[in-house]
Amino acid sequence: KTPHSNAMTTRTHGTMSPCTKIHASLIISTYNNPRFLSLCLESVLRQSMAPLEIIIADDGSTADTRDCVASYSRMSPVPIIHVWHEDRGFRLAEIRNKAIVKANGNYIIQIDGDLILERHFVEDHVKAASSGHYVLGGRARFTEEATARLVGSAKATPTFLSKGLRVRENAIRFLPLGLLFRHTKRSPMGCNMSFWKDDIMRINGYDNDYVGWGYEDIDVLARLQAIGIAQNRLKFCGICYHLHHVQASRANVADNSNRLARKKDRQEIIARNGIAQLIQATSSDIPPTQATLSDIPLIQHIADVAFRDTYKEILAPQQVEYMMDWMYSAESLERQMTAEGNTFFLAGTYGYASVRPDGTTPEGLPLYHLEKLYVLPSRQGRGIGRALFEKVRAFVAHEAGGRAVMELNVNRCNEALGFYRRLGMSIVRSGDFPIGEGFYMNDYIMRLFVG
């Protein structure tokens, strides 16, 4: 039986739009254990609700794991993406970050490759998802002898009655009882958890500086909680079975514990070395430069692709055409650059941004308006948008000569809302603004203090 789709609507508040559809990416971390990974993937293929995709976060395994992933890719009804980096020691935090970057879903379910999942595992996580929360579950554990039997079997479908099972109560699935535990707390366990991608991006993901076993999951959950993301607990649902193996080296536990303590002391919420730094390290794109009137044809070319792509599912075609002429005709762009005081920046041939002074705030601070920021769809996810934003931020700080405010209008249905939140902007008001010909911009106004 083919698992059904994971597209599910949930009522949400806060960071997600109302009635957000959940598309869950399943990230499986692994290292040089294709036998366990095979059992794990077999259990994923039996799920009552299929994930959008399966992402293997491979911390440097050899060709045996690559061959295992390739074999399951050929039989899986959903895409399997193999994210691998060189074996330079235990770098679980970093490979998870790399997998999160590749995720196309708006929701991340994260497990380890030494787990066998009960068939409702993905479904239970998706149903427990809600805005402003991450989800944390437990695991039942097999003994060494029971694990050997499972690895040698043709089909491993354990239950709470299986022999050699420890913490057996964690293998009982009983949803009514589980609801009573939903808002109780359990200790962090990175092998069975889920979260909104926007939320993890807001804190810049895991801290890549955690090397060796321990504390990277405690750290990431503490930082999620610091931005107001609370825990939903999975008890008597979200069942998984841990296969016995030799423990990873604990040689770096003291260093990682000290790192966590230092981060707490300085109240670090945004990882200093996280997802953004990985993106920047792998981006070969040209740094943004200030545009001139001679760049108008290039801006028009990028807009013709990027602006249309952004609004094709949001605005009526007639409004898109009207706005393209209103904002991106050669005459309009020349007027913006001259009479209206807009400064444009280009990131090579891939994206552009513009900003203009807009008076002062009621508190007397210089006010600037970020008018535009668009990146070609084929180049998104590579740090270009962030680079343009930071270029504009630095420009505003320099022009203001001190503290200033930068505001932005963004359509209320635009997925870029999450992008701007991750960069520190927050919604301060909303409105419906007439732009002529009976058309309106239905926007949030977002704000950022600069300097």
Strands, total number: 20
What is the gyration radius calculated from CA atoms?
Answer: 24 Å
Distance between the termini: 58 Å
Strand count, sense and barrel status of the largest sheet are: 7 strands, mixed
Query: How many helices?
Result: 15
Gross morphology is: elongated
Tell me the β content.
15-25%
- Biggest sheet strand order reads 5-4-3-6-11-8-12
Helix content: 25-40%
Give the uncertain stretches in residue-range form.
Answer: 1-5, 10-18
Mean pLDDT: 90
Structural class: alpha/beta
Structure description:
The chain has 451 residues and is α/β, with parallel strands linked by helices. It contains 15 helices and 20 strands. The protein has a 7-stranded mixed beta sheet with strand order 5-4-3-6-11-8-12, with helices on both faces. It has a 7-stranded mixed beta sheet with strand order 14-15-16-17-18-20-19. Strand 3, helix 1 (34-45) and strand 4 (53-58) form a beta-alpha-beta unit. Helix 1 (34-45) runs parallel beside helix 2 and helix 12 (317-328) packs across helix 13 (330-337). The radius of gyration is 24 Å and the shape is elongated. The termini are far apart.
